[in-house]
Amino acid sequence: MTIELDSRDRSILRILQADGRITNSDLAEKVHLSPSACLRRVRQLEESGLIRGYAMILDDKIAGFPGTAFVFVTLDQQGRASLEGFEQAVLNLPEILECHLLAGAHDYLMRVIYRDSADFERIHTDIITQLPGVTRVQSTLTLRSIKKSSALPV
Question: Which terminus in the chain has less CB density within 10 A, N or C?
Fold first, then answer.
């Protein structure tokens, strides 16, 4: 489901993606609306589900997680119960920042953060390979992040 956005809605979304802490009055000024009209639009965007929430973005390295790995996972079965069991287990693991169901040679792709090589070995051996149904794990370690964004091109 998509919703119709006008140019003001798009401006509001771009600004909020760049600065989720901006005050409503500053936002209203930037998009040339009254504060009440701006707040009404923001609330409509929230109620529509387009704005799912507001989050603080931490720096991985400063937080003590300089390593990022992309991990492909293959399960022994692809039935609904197998997929649901794996997915439920992944939801409770803070080291796994993203997990995507795939179409192709692997079943899942995960983005994992870690402190050092010993920490990644622990995550690989004690966590990922122990998840329900896992038969194969293939990891790719990043050397450097060139672009990392959560902002959508609205």
Answer: N
Distance (Å, whole) CA 41 – CA 11: 11
What SS3 state is found at 71?
A: strand
Which residues sit opposite 73 in a β-bridge?
A: 108, 137
Span 20-49, mean pLDDT? 98
Query: pTM of the prediction?
Result: 0.90
Which tens digits make up the pLDDT trace of 73-126?
999 999 999 999 999 999 999 999 999 999 999 999 999 999 999 999 999 999
Residue type, 68: T
Angstrom distance (rounded) from CA 91 to CA 88 = 5
Give the span between the Cα atoms of 11 and 46, in whole angstroms: 15
Q: Is 127 in a helix, a strand, or coil?
A: helix
Q: Which spans in 1-154 are helix H? A: 7-18, 24-31, 35-47, 80-91, 117-122
